[in-house]
User: What shape does this take?
Amino acid sequence: MRIVVTRRVPEAALVELRALGEVVVSDADRPLTQEELQEAVAGASAIVSMLHDRIDGAVADAAGPQLRVVANVAVGYDNIDVPALVERGVVVTNTPDVLTDATADLTFGLLLALTRRIAEGDRLLRARKPWSFHLGFMLGSGLQGKTLGIIGPGQIGKAVARRAEAFGMRVVYSGRSQPKEDLLRVADVVSLHCPLTPETRHLIDAKALSAMKHTAFLINTTRGPVVDESALADALLANEIAGAGLDVFEREPEVEPRLLELNNVVLTPHLGSATVETRTEMALLAARNVAAVLNGGEPVNPVHR
Ligand code: GLV
Ligand code: GLV
Assistant: This one.
């Protein structure tokens, strides 16, 4: 059986996959184009995919009727046309839970870097600008007694809430049942943890941004298109909100150029789950999902019934 891996993954996962069949790993140090992807998957029984791969019916057809599983090495699977794959009898799996703490940690890192101006201070020193300590120098915002609004109270949202409570913050949630408008009105920090779906695309648009406090911060570690990035730049330039911490972008790897110019924006290149430990766990979990399906068992993390 042929197992196609679309990008380099930790060796431990390859060891598990090689026990199942012939493993082919893309040696391009970049995402494959759609054409290259279709070529690469030909004859595959399993595809181990990354969040930058668009896996749709055409890719499944290019693989062939023997394709049985697509194991996405990510918790989000907005890059996969799940109905098209299910229709073709292909199981789709993701990697929940193992990246919850790493992503919550990075969310808090962005929150602290933003509210305490850590990235801005680092830039100031590297620019070798003169400075001296004084009581009004580079003041940030404290977190204690402030309200964190979590949009998407899943595993990651709850893990961020636990950290916020340890910092003395009050936490409010919005999900399917609690309205987002109430949260936007009261939150000092709004953090996004909902998956990207047709309903959450541009959930944070110009209207939502104008509903936020002028002193509030926005953090996004889920998927870029949940925020209208151009509207966000407008809102920041108009001082409608106080700042933004972004790990994900609407058109990765591109970043809205106006955001790059702003000191009250902290940016990281999609690093939410990027620790050695977590990335190894994610790849191993994807391999375990492939093994379960190819061995005729139940997948560990199916994203559909
Ligand atoms: C990363 O963004 C993931 O969905 O795992
Ligand atoms: C998404 O999977 C979340 O846990 O919030």
Q: What stands out?
A: Residues 51, 74-76, 99, 272-273 surround glyoxylic acid (ligand 1) (CB under 6 Å).
